[in-house]
Write a structure and sequence with these properties.
seven-stranded mixed β-sheet; single chain; Metallo-beta-lactamase, Chain A; alpha/beta; 2 domains; 18 strands; 308 residues
Amino acid sequence: MGTKKIIVLGTASQVPSTNRNHIAVFIRWDEEDILIDPGEGTQRQMIRFGVPINKIKKILITHFHGDHCLGLPGVIQRLSLNKVKHPIEIFYPKQGEVFLHNLINSAIFHNNLELIFKPIEDDGEIPCNGQIKIHAFKLDHGVETFGYKISDPTRWNIIPTKLPIDFKKELIGELKKNKFIEYKGQKIYLHEVAVSKKSQVIGYCLDTKVCENAYKIAKDVDILICESTYLSQDEELALNYKHLTATQAATIAKDANANKLILLHYSQRYPNHQLFEEEAKKIHENVSAAFDGMKIDLPHIKREIDKT
């Protein structure tokens, strides 16, 4: 059984504080280690909270405001110093490509890494290495910004009694791959002889104002990691700067049937992050206001879903 865990490395928005690092989130997804939005100080936060930097296989960047990417040079140089052998995929908005390369080449170092660049231009699934699916959704933040949905690939359990008695077991792989097979003049469709297992899904929605794609990211996820830069008393500021309030984040989570909501990306004007949780719980009861170093396990899902 695989292990899935979220470690919140930083929770601050534009201005960090003594107890809030710039935003950064680490996700262990079975054999994949994913770093999202490495803000300034991310390398140190990984050391502080026991996150193994050498295992990073994917780096996801939502946009190129500094609080979401200024830690990238340190992470890349550390990985290179450690002579990490596996390729590292970097996902980022295409329009910010010049900033990505400026960050990577911002200081002198000997680059030992195999970096695979994955520029994103539109909504949809992004082809990537490993047993994982990543979907991107364009958000509304003034600069090109993408949120992400991370999930398992669809897995199927064959029901032997629904197959012909003489069906050869070595053909099951082909059936799963192609979704159908022609056997002795009969077409056998995968969804007729198998059930798909429920995938675990995480949504990551930073930075944005309320928009349709925020709801798409949140739809039916096990965990929604969502910005709540402001409290509702400052809703006008949220609108002006294209951010969310805790109430708006909770409303998106509730209406989109997200199971658990994790809030973060707090403005420095609020020293107490628990205020965000208190506000959001008036809308959606399963809410946690994240703090630096917070760890969240994803429980293994055993239930099955309808045929797709």
